## 1
Amino acid sequence: MAQAIETKYFTATNVRGSRITATAWGGSVTISRDWELDVVDAHRAAADALIAKLGWSGTYVQGSNVKGDGYYFVKVEGA
């Protein structure tokens, strides 16, 4: 079964810098926010890191969440 990936942005604190977490049933990964990337590509980088960690492959489509603080990534069937 394909699993959706959800990414979420977290602002910097006094202890940690800005970061993005990508989460799916299979696990999660947190990366530092790369400010050389635009918002969409920064979230894609987090999703790609999780895809690599879990050994997944395929083509994923991306859409923003309702709150505007993250994105969803869903695998396109047959890809």
Note: Helices lie at 39-54.
## 2
Amino acid sequence: MKKAYREQGESAVIHGNSGRHPANYTDEKLREEIIRLKKSEIYQGTNFTHFRELLEEYENIKISYSTLSRILKSSGIISKRCHRPEGKRFRRRKRKSSFGDMLQADGSSFDWFGNGVRCTLHGFIDDATGIITGLYFCRNECLMGYLEVLRQTLVNYGIPLEFYADKAGIFLVNTKKSENWTVAEMLAGKTLDKTQFGRIVDEQLGITMISAHTPQAKGRVERLWGTCGLKSDKTACLFGYG
């Protein structure tokens, strides 16, 4: 370095790459064009990956994802991503360990026979195994439909420990009634009146009724209707119609 300084002067201590662009340098005009295109109406809704693919296909601009991301982020542009909505998130409930521990109950109104007439398919499905313990058609969702499915279940499988159903009036008395209770009644442990179905399963069979707050909570029986819908022609022959 001393020899170079004596021969070349101050220029000898200047790095050889000084003033040169790095190998991965992107031309300023190209940077401006990429930013302009991303802010345009055509591309502003795309994420970085999709935008990069569209640049190569329609604008004849080939650029690596890392370079594209660096250029756009330096201009205050962020990638459009799908984020889960804020709010309460539910953890998936584990299945029961044994058959008969819990049956999920529900009814689905649909044009099952393809004749333009809606009817309701009532059904129970075992939470642990996914076995369907009973199905029955009625014109509307009703007590008779659920009692027939209950009869099929008892005859073929026995008495389950729990029922998991929604808050339909067939299963539970309207909870608004509890809003009119006095403080003394609540302290005394007063409970809601039971429906006819509730009295049968609780008092006569000893089955515990559990109410679901959302359809997702009893997802197995909700997904059952999609399965039955694919086989609706066979279902009409296999199960009774009330």
Note: Residues 198 and 204 are 9 Å apart (CA to CA).
